[in-house]
Amino acid sequence: MPSAKRLSAGLLMYRYNNGKLEVFLAHPGGPYFFKKDEKHWSIPKGEPEEEEELLQAAIREFTEETGITPNKNFIELSPITQKGGKEVYAWAFEGTLPEGYVHSCNTFKVEWPPHTGKYVDFPEVDEAGFFDVETAKQKIKETQIPLLEKLEEILSSKSE
């Protein structure tokens, strides 16, 4: 595993819908992101556990945040660095939502409202779905746009 101060690993699921590339993004749950949309979506990702391989962490996090078990045939994307300095390693894979899919994910506790001593469970991801790439570029965090561009580049070179 690469040595870096802060790491995250994630998966970018994609599909073709009527010949058009679409990517699967997740919106963070919790009270701080409730009314935030553009530039706040992300690929499903998270931090690796001690001694966990990055791809395994990406698979685990994707499953925890979406309720979907990803298939194999992962395509490695170039790592990016987010604004806070966290390095994100990502892989893409082709997939779609299972029949009758209902989003499910793990939860986290946060003091809400702040300074009240009351802790509330919130879903880690409150919404997830497929978007065409242009729409996804409006929704995803600015620093993650290169992941979408790298996927487009790889897929276009495969079809030539």
Q: Would you identify the CATH H-level superfamily?
A: Nucleoside Triphosphate Pyrophosphohydrolase
Overall CATH class: Alpha Beta
Rg on CA atoms, Å:
16 Å
The average pLDDT score comes to: 92
Question: How many domains in all?
Answer: 1
Helicity, as a percent range:
10-25%
Q: Biggest sheet, open or closed, and with what strands and sense?
A: 7 strands, mixed
The H/E string reads EEEHEEEEEEHH
**N-C termini distance:** 33 Å
Give the total of beta strands: 9
**CATH topology group:** Nucleoside Triphosphate Pyrophosphohydrolase
Secondary-structure arrangement, i.e. CATH architecture:
Alpha-Beta Complex
Query: Given the helix and strand composition, which structural class is it?
Result: alpha+beta
- Tertiary shape: globular
Tell me the strand percentage band. Answer: 25-35%
Instruction: Give the low-confidence spans.
Output: none
Question: What does this entry show, briefly?
Answer:
With 160 residues, the chain is an alpha+beta fold. The protein is built from 3 helices and 9 strands, in the order βββαββββββαα. It has helices at 54-66, 133-139, 145-158, and strands spanning 7-17, 20-28, 45-46, 75-76, 80-81, 87-94, 107-111, 119-123, 125-132.
